[in-house]
Design goal:
By secondary structure, this protein is mainly alpha-helical. It has one domain. The chain is 79% helix and 0% strand.
Amino acid sequence: MTDQTESTRNIPGFIFKCASWLLAVGCFYLVFSRLSAAAGREGITLVEYLVNFLGGVNWVAWFAVMIPYSVFFFLIDSNVTWRAIRWFNAPTLKFQNILPIRASAYILSLLSEQVGKGAMTLYLLRRHKTPGWETLSTMIFLGLMEIYQLLLFSVIGLIYYFEYVVAASKLLPLDTILPILFIAAFTFLCIWIAFFRRLFFKQTNIRNHRYLRAFREAQIKHYVLTVLYKAPNLIGAVIVYTIALNLFNVEASFGQLLVFLPLIFLAAALPLPFHAGALLLWTALFPDYPEVGVFSLFMHTFFVLFNASIGLVFLPKANRELIDESS
């Protein structure tokens, strides 16, 4: 009876995995089709088309851009994580103590982002006696603000560079969809903050759950400061991706990336294998360059592997923090 119940509980998870893989296959098929069509128009094979595309890249300049940005991203990301943990979990935590744990989490994130966050949860539990649920609430807070930071910058881009949205609205009416999406998202955020500030439904117990502790304690300044502390990474990403696209001989402007890159990052966060959602969105937003799907794979693969290499540098110290009781 127990085995049958367990099997029944696993059915939704199995269906979700199958659906995500089917969607991913569909995304890759659409990208593959557009690449094959582009190669056919030039009268060459797909392999030759991709070799020509990659052969024209200035790889030295690309590495010279990507390596400093990856280090910069790590430092900014660690700073945001450190400040949020100090606000809600461990006020005495020092910045230099979060660096090895955050860096090592990049290694674990190759398997799963949740596993990477688990390393920080374990560290705070062992070194600062912070309950795991409370640390989880901080990670949820950071995750939510990551989404809204991307939405905010995309709104700024939409306002100043709306003509790029109109130009990209060939497959989907993005010039209509995006404003509606942004209004709905920020309306929800206002309601969310008001709910945790007890402006309505004051007797509801949902907000008292341990995994929502960070939101109960967060003030308006914490939301604003988190976005500001995260902002350098996204601004840097827009600059780096603009330079990188041009190094791959794809014409792209700062304005286009300011509007589209946050949306692509949001698509990358969808639970699809190999970030298939972002891959398809790249191709949809740059219809004249179907090879941008390949570009996105190179960018993502380098970024996660280089961040993991930063984790390897800090791994001995992280091990001492997490495993060695005498440290």
